[in-house]
Amino acid sequence: MPEEENSDLVSLTIDGVEVQVSEDSTVIEAAEKAGVVVPHYCYHPGIPTRPAQCRVCLVEVEGQDKLQPSCKLPVQDGMEVHTDSDDAELARKSVIEFLLVNHPLDCPICDAAGQCMLQDYAFETGQLQSRLNEEKLVMGRDRIADDILYFADRCIICTRCVRFMREVAQDDSLVVAQRGDRAYIDTFPDEDLDNPFQGNIVDVCPVGALVHEDYLFKARAWDMDKTPSICPGCSNGCNVTLDTKENQIVRLKPRYNGEVNSYWMCDYGRKHLVMGNRGVRTEVPLVRQGGELEPMDWSDALAAVGERLGGIEGGSAVVSPDACNESLHYFRRLLDTLGVPADAGSYRVEQGEEHTLPGFPKLTLREDRAANGTGADLFGFRRVESWPEPEPGAPLFVLQETLREAPESYAEDASFFLYLGSHLSPAARRADAVLPVTTFAEMAGTFTNHEGRVQRFQKALQPPGIARPAWMVLSGLLARSGDGSPVLDAADAFGEMTDERPEMAVLNWGRVGLKGQTLDSGAGAEAGAGAR
Amino acid sequence: MAFPETHERETRTLLSRHMGEEEARTLDGWRERGGYGALEKALEMEPDEIVTTVKESGLRGRGGAGFPTGVKWSFMPEKGDDPHYLACNADESEPGAFKDRELMRWTPHLLIEGCVIAARAIQAEHVYVYVRGEFFEVIRILNRAVTDAYEAGYLGEDILGSGWGCDLTVHVGAGAYIAGEETGMLSSIADGRAEPRIKPPFPAQSGLFGDPTTVNNVETLSSVPMILDNGADWYRQWGSDDSPGTKLWCCSGHLNRPGNYELELGMPLKDIIHDVCGGVPEGRQVRAVFPGGSSTPILSRDELDCETTYEGLSEAGSALGTASPIVMDESTCIVRAMRRVAHFYAHESCGQCVQCREGTAWVTKILERIERGGGEMEDLDTLYDLCEQMTGKTICVLADSVVFPLESSLDKFRDEYEAHIKHDRCTATA
Known about the structure:
The structure holds two protein chains of two kinds. By secondary structure, chain A is α+β, with helices and mostly antiparallel strands.
């Protein structure tokens, strides 16, 4: 929506509700503000053009003979709009009837069922009996990209996908082919859709015409839990929703944030996390006793580790740039307590090719393929290309870095090796104590993205075994030596962190909310723009 | 090739004066016939004067909508830094119409002259003539004429030493009805799909490449030189106050002498059919007529007294459209004729608006079923309902173009539909 403070306001009524909007708004935007949902297909707030071709958003405007497409119609002062007049309702109902003429009604096997705008509006207009007495057109399906299938029969030719590709991804490979009721979406002959942002066409599809093959037949929309989160794929910090079923991440969907990723996300991010379900997880604390790692409960394990730490001075540390701010905060505090020099802590960020979404350049798949490198910097960890070999005979502390790529001999000669992590790699098995911690999807916390925006993620999955968030484990460990008390809640951890860190004093858990807050935002600055 | 015989009531003195004369196609032949004289005159006039003259002549757009040409020109904004364009619609795709093709085949220089004069009036620096892709002969002739006109200085940078100039490009379409809709045509010229877009903005505000553009039909532009040559009053000696001048009538269907006839606007439709075109063959009677091409409401035998002016046909409940009467005699099954018309529009729908994309196809399927012999009486109610929902709710009027003839046929020939449904075959035709 346009920035309202930059333009004059006009007032109009939508179904009798008076509303004030900026003069460059359209009627559909004004209706939204008035709390009136105008059904629409071709209109998408993130796609610039408004072809007004689905004709389902037609509304009646006093003084105008014809029904008008509200997505395209500019507001005028004093306008009286009716979305619920007989004519408007009849027109809407008839568009749905027309759309169902060639629609296969295969909802029972359609991935979009339960999240389908055609299904929703068909229910809303209440047409149980079809007047159609003719055979439906059968068009079949096609693989439109490597991992995207196109079900032409379900397609309603709203052209959102074509326009997303053309206008936002600025890639002309997707087109409408043929015309009339034979029209379908296709690529040019012998050309493929191959764009790092093409997954968004599945999200913008209002029906089940475009589906991800990864997700095909995997879950029904109503069987999934949806949790607001942050994509950990790179340092951009795209706002996402984690769709989970039976304690597994089934898919990621972008979540609107006008300051970070708009309505979009990249394909790397989508795949990265679904793959993250793999690996050997740490489930219970393991403490080395007589050469063997022995499972223990948390109180025994913390007691045992606390005892060992009592006699330690100095050493070095490695952290993962995927650890959250709160965990890094308590880890830093622990290192300070143990007298580990500030420059003896390091982190390494996996690198990859950068891709920018031309229509919304703030959304860039960054070279830094980790969520919280900025956070690691902030807490004084040193960025390195490869971890320095730990000093022989000195202690080593590792937070969430899997050490998957570490040489087998890594930390061989450490005097004491403490490992807090969620996965158990060969190098990690060398540790004297393994404390199982949760992944970001199994906990709440914050990441700091590449531009210093601190964003919250929420708990979407149950952790395996008795794994706990690292900030909880670390604050418990510190409390044992009389340093504060154990923290059991992410908001409290965040509060202690921002109290102790002057550069984070501006942050506020509530204001960070679901849209984030930047470190340089003044006390009065608003966090994020309004979502749709 | 000889041009068909003329009729005594025909006014073959204006637009079609040189049809049938091979030499009129050439630049020299055209000049011998007084060609480009109007252009010379126009170059000495201010753009506003040209607009005023055309406004006063009352010339109305010959593409179908009949909007006054001079008024349309005056919608162009004041000339600033942005280029202005003239787009000549030579897509002539309405079933029944074949006048623009003949104009371009026989008198390509007349069109070029009209284009340049209009370009001067609206201060356009570039003219695009969008020709239907299937008009192979026309394309060849036009391209030849354009080349000659450039060489002779009627097109180009400095036309006839006036210090003013404009270019002309013949743009060949790929053959789609909807490319004849003005915004669809502009999109097609600019490399897009021929898809109409919502108005406003009108082409005069934002047209070709987003710049101010006027779209005129071939016959409209071909009428401009003679108006400039002879003046507005001279033009108004033909036709009525609201529909001045003459018009090419493309008469087809069950007629003894089908063809193009240039007639003064206002002749009763039945005279065109029975007198000019020699009536219907073998002594049969007229059953129905599409007076202005296949997208106009049909008229029954009892309604043919109407005057063939814009206002006269509108009073009769139809439209002058492209002035292309398609005459159907008693051997015509109305259901079948409507099925054929609906099929055409379903095939040509661009597919953007749901009502049109699905509606035209659905209507076609219902008509096909009735024709085949599987119709039910409720189908007629459904057809009326669909007609209602396809009218006035879409970006362009293609859906309405099915509704106009279909609804009028349901009104006027309901008994035939009912008999068809009852007997599962046509009983109206012998």
